[in-house]
Amino acid sequence: MGNRAVDEAGATAPAATTRLLAADVGGTYARVGLVDPDGSGFTVGFHRRYECAAFPSLAAVLRHFHDEAVEAGEAAFPDACVVAIAGVLQGDHLLNGNLAWPVSLSATRGDAGIGHLHLINDFEALAWALPRIPLAQFQPLGAAGGLPLPVLLLGPGTGLGAALLVDQNGRLAVQPSEAGQAALAAGTPLELDVVRMLQARFGHVANERVFSGPGLVNLYQSLCALRGVPPRWNAPAELVAAADHGDDPLAVECITLFCGWLGSFAGDLALAFRAGSVCLAGGLTGHLQRHLGQGDFMRRFVDKGVLSDSLRQLPVHALEHGDLGLIGAAAWHAAQPRD
Please, what is the end-to-end C-alpha distance for the chain in angstroms? Predict the structure, then answer.
């Protein structure tokens, strides 16, 4: 599987034929747009970004977008909608602790007035978008190269997303993952101390307790407690800004620790899935890209004993995904079998 690249397998992907209402919903923002087929790809037309907390439900977001689109003159409104959303759909309900509201598939269909509504994992959608992205948009962190399959996609944001893009009998397919909810593994004495503190606070310490925006704050607060220093920062953006300015040594230490620990985790998953390449996305990745490129991420990524040399050869990229979740939702929809 690892001998093929995304562009080779992507040539067999089915083409879309109709306009689609697509949404990409995370713990903080919801991006909603009208997506049209464009030859073998997709074009995002009228689109908006909303703060999830400003709405009482997912259905309210979709209704508001519909009203704005109609007001803007978008008369041809699709009857099919794919929502790429953080979490796992179990029966009728979405399992996720990071969203602003609970989500029921049937209730959202009814309240939004959408008969053909689908919910898929947000990073599953983003993985479907990877073949549609020009390689120039990928920023190398490790070895140069394209996107050999399987592609491991990771994304720290409000939570931690993960998915695997694979070659399945000559066609691209995506394996969703909930690696963000698996137990966090420590690799240094300091990381062990942090895990112990987080266990006392949370019980089960999932990977996203550190590898996410809120997790970055958890990590900083743990470092402050270990150093006996009162916290100065309460939000991820404040913490990253302090590290960027370089005038707060503890903020710099926190970001450095985060990048190295994330690199170790990414290397573990790359080995577990025998990935051909790795792509980092998610809202936090863009904010930390300069720090991710400073060496600790890749140093810990390849620090895997006898297999270190093989990991040094893996292309590793960073990607700011923006509206790519909408493209991925449309790509997922186009790949589904039709009756």
Answer: 29
pTM for the whole thing? 0.90
- 1 part of a folded domain: no
Closest to 211 measured CA to CA, from 157, 264, 281:
157
**Cα 156 to Cα 154: distance, rounded to the nearest angstrom:** 7
**Which of 275, 314, 276, 8 is closest to 148 using CA atoms?**
276
The C-alpha R_g of the chain, in whole angstroms, comes to 20
Per-residue pLDDT for 330 more than 70?
yes
The amino acid that residue 204 corresponds to is H
For residue 127 the two structure tokens come to: 């993985």
Residues 163 and 115 in one domain: no
Are 15 and 35 contacting, i.e. CB atoms less than 8 angstroms apart?
no
CB 108 within 8 A of CB 118: no
Q: What is the pLDDT of residues 139-162, one digit of tens each?
A: 999 888 889 999 999 999 889 999
Do 24 and 99 belong together in one domain?
yes
Q: By C-alpha distance, which of 47, 77, 10 is closest to 324?
A: 47
Full residue range of the structural domain in which residue 147 is found: 136-318
